[in-house]
Amino acid sequence: MKRSDDRAPHQLRQWKFETDYLPHAYGSVMIHSGVTRVLCAATLEERQPSWMSDPNTGWVKAEYSMLPASTHSRSRRDFNRSNGRTHEIQRLIGRSLRGVTDLKKLGPRSLTLDCDVIIADAGTRTASITGGWVALALACHRLRKEGKIQEFPFTDQVAAVSLGIVDGEVLTDLDYSEDSAAETDLNLVMTSSGGLIEVQGTAEGAPFTRAELDKILDAGWEALQQIFALQRDALSQAGVAWQTVGA
Question: Strand (E) positions, 20-138?
Fold first, then answer.
């Protein structure tokens, strides 16, 4: 099928990482995924959550929101975080980041990743996870420079990509026009070593087959190889020795 921006079926949108976007955050990145823009910022608290029992363990969590003018029609501000979709997405982001973080190496402190959608053209949760990891890595780089941690706490990279079946064809990195027309919609979260963190797949019409799922996962893994490389390039350009991530 002909895509709206003339991409090949498994071609990513244009991705870009603008690191250190906010001067007061411990780590920040504006991530561009096609038209979609998400600002990911990590802030530090030198204390654990009150419910933690291990005095030497840290915590990573995420908050997610969409600016009112980020969509075609105004989105209401969710001041009380009461929206079920908001809860689902920020829990997904937090799980994904913690899935590759050794919380004991982080020490008794908390890092919060705020992911604010500036422009939404589909793939906001996948961009939040991908950009969130870069912002978290930048924050941990600063913690190392300050002598608060001795090494990066990561066991791996983590990133995410959206996929779907549109007009019977598997497509990678859907924009809004494709996402709204998809017969099958799937978000894939994986580590750079090939581990699965989350597979969120839904049939919007007829059920999809196991063979189709395998095709989607293969296309997703191929796309994520490119995204992992973009994450490493972004860190390298920011002066972070990303080779030590996971060491």
Answer: 27-33, 36-45, 59-66, 110-119
15-244: CATH superfamily: GHMP Kinase, N-terminal domain (3.30.230.70)
Distance between CA atoms of 13 and 227, rounded to whole angstroms?
A: 11
In tens, the pLDDT along 3-54 reads 878 899 999 999 999 999 999 999 999 999 999 999 999 999 999 999 999 9
Q: Where are the domains of the chain?
A: 15-244
Compute CA distances 137 → 17, 18, 25, 225, whole Å.
13, 14, 12, 18
Q: What are the backbone angles phi and psi of residue 51, rounded to the nearest 5°?
A: -80, -10
Strands 36-45 and 59-66 turn out to be: unpaired
* Strands 59-66 vs 110-119: parallel, antiparallel or unpaired: parallel
**Each residue's pLDDT tens digit, 80-131:** 666 788 899 999 999 999 999 999 999 999 999 999 999 999 999 999 999 9
Q: How far apart are CA 106 and CA 148, in angstroms?
A: 9
